[in-house]
Amino acid sequence: MSAAERVAALRLETLELHLTDSILTIAVHRPEALNALAPQVIAELREVFGLLRERLGRPLVADGEDLDWSIRGVILTGTGGKAFIAGADIKTMQTMTVDDARVYASEAHELFSWIETLPVPVVAAVNGYALGGGCEIAMACDVIYASENAKFGQPEVALGLIPGFGGCARLQQYVGIAHARELIFTGRHIDALEAERIGLVARVLPDTGALAEAARTTLLQSAAQSPVAVSLAKRAIRAAQALPTDQGIEAELEAFVECFESDDLREGTTAFVEKRKPQFPGR
Ligand code: CAA
167: Cβ below 6 Å to ligand 1? Predict the structure, then answer.
């Protein structure tokens, strides 16, 4: 069974899944808590991204040549129009022990690293509040698009907490250390246009309809390219983010050279020379 077929068979309580034209939309649905990341939401996101991680870009059948590219992009969003994700679940954290907190954050960290290493692009479509853990999961995606009503922030210090789902590390990568410190130390919310100005958001759309359309258009545009090349580019970009520049460049070299083992490179370059559209085999 392909990843798309497996995803279609999942039954989840806090996530709504829609698959169209190889683009999977995952919408967090906890209307009573503005889609806050309760442990159950983290567990269900782990189920979906864990499945994608195990399957995508891997042989469809044992020893088979064809790789599973049945899903070519993922959109992460929230239901309800008011919130993308309003953070980690404050009511759950109120009674957590130190050990519970370690498990909660470790499972979130692992999930976020699965998103970052998925071989297909993931767009966060932020349609309302993206606070605390909501902003943090958006930053683990490849690109953040926002509707005009979106609000971002790391308000944890107001709760006696710090950003604990990767915000201290990732926010400075997006916006630079000065903006990151200012946002984290004050906990203030910023609107979509300010988030775009400081580099957190790639594009602001007028409303949620335009937001969904833009995310989909970007992923479909990416899906028309070589899946091997897109996944290797994602790997090289992440390596460059996490490593010192010289090691990042080394990782890029390895990924570049790996392209030359692929049928996609033969097809892409041959199609260019023959002046036709490439038909990428995805291997
Ligand atoms: N966790 C649990 N429940 C939440 C929640 C959260 N993060 N955010 C909102 N809710 C709940 C509210 O408690 C409320 O439930 P009740 O009706 O049962 O009281 C419901 O969602 C609606 O929220 P509000 O009534 O507060 O809605 P509002 O329009 O007045 O305000 C808001 C909206 C400004 C987003 C406000 O809800 C808010 O400030 N939420 C908390 C945001 C936050 O601090 N997030 C960071 C969490 S800590 C974290 O994420 C740590 C980490 O890094 C891992």
Answer: yes
**Residues 171, 237: one domain?**
no
What's the domain count of the chain?
Answer: 2
Cβ atoms within 10 Å of 155's Cβ, excluding its own: 19
Question: Per residue in 8-22, pLDDT tens?
Answer: 999 999 999 999 999
| Any atom of ligand 1 within 6 Å of the Cβ of 202 | no
CA 89 – ligand 1 centroid, Å: 8
Two structure tokens written together for 10: 């999942």
Reply yes or no on whether the pLDDT at 172 is more than 90.
Answer: yes
Query: What pTM was estimated for this model as a whole?
Result: 0.97
Which pLDDT does position 76 carry in this prediction? 98
C-beta of 130 in contact with ligand 1 (< 6 A): no
Which pLDDT does position 3 carry in this prediction?
Answer: 96
Q: Which domain holds residue 79?
A: 3-223
Joined tokens for residue 253: 């070299």
Rounded distance, CA 72 to CA 218, Å?
11
Residues across the chain: 283
Tell me the C-alpha distance between 162 and 154, whole Å: 8
Confidence (pLDDT) at 140: 98
CB 125 within 8 A of CB 75: yes
Q: Which atom of ligand 1 is nearest to the CA of 90?
A: 1
pLDDT band at residue 69 under the 50/70/90 scheme: very high
pLDDT of residue 253: 97
CA of 190 to the centre of ligand 1 (A): 16
Rounded Cα distance, 51 and 235, in Å? 19
Just list the catalytic residues: 136, 156
Nearest CA to 123 among 75, 71, 171, 85?
A: 75
Q: Is residue 283 part of a domain?
A: no
